[in-house]
Amino acid sequence: MEAKSVLLKLKKFSNPKNVAGMTRFGIQGKKMLGVSMPELRELGKEIGKDSKLSQELWETGIHEARILAGIIAEPKIFTEKQMDRWIKDFDSWDVCDRVCLNLFWQLPPACEKCVEWSSREREFEKRAGFALMAVLAVKDKKIKNEQFEIFFPIIIKASDDERNFVRKAVNWALRQIGKRNAVLNKKAIEVAKKILKKESKTAKWIANDAIRELTGNAIQTRLK
């Protein structure tokens, strides 16, 4: 399938009301069409994996085309340089999170990029580091506990970043790591208690929210 025909399909699915709804949820972007995720997933299945088309869609700058690009990209041939180029284009939390969820976690440099990107200054580049931590905690069953423990000092350091899309990603990473297994649960709670001691409203919010979920009956019962 050619990029032109894909874009025609996306425009056919466009919905201005959805754009308004996306904006209310903090989703932003210069070229949003309002295409729903079920429609994007269905179109992704229809297209299949296509590396060339994926890059062409990304370069359009269209919000939904970039999410679709992450769905149809081929992990086996997607390079580290492409990862670094794509995150520089992130301009919305959902593009960031969807690309991490659909593509980045499957790539060999994923753990290294969590560390590297989490020290970036730009909001969505930094978010990508923590979003990727969260996704890896859920999706990659082969990673050992020790790798996630490497992320804990990074989470502590970033816990007073007041920017909304960073603080929520830091919180997300801590909670997902803490839900992975009983050992990491205990250590994540200890990390949250360290964060709680910081003189920062943002840090206290991250810590309290994580502690509430990680010590809750639902999580504790499942981990036992």
UniProtKB/TrEMBL annotation:
It holds the Pfam family DNA_alkylation. Coiled coil: none annotated. PANTHER family: DNA ALKYLATION REPAIR PROTEIN. This is DNA alkylation repair protein. It comes from Candidatus Nealsonbacteria bacterium CG23_combo_of_CG06-09_8_20_14_all_39_17.
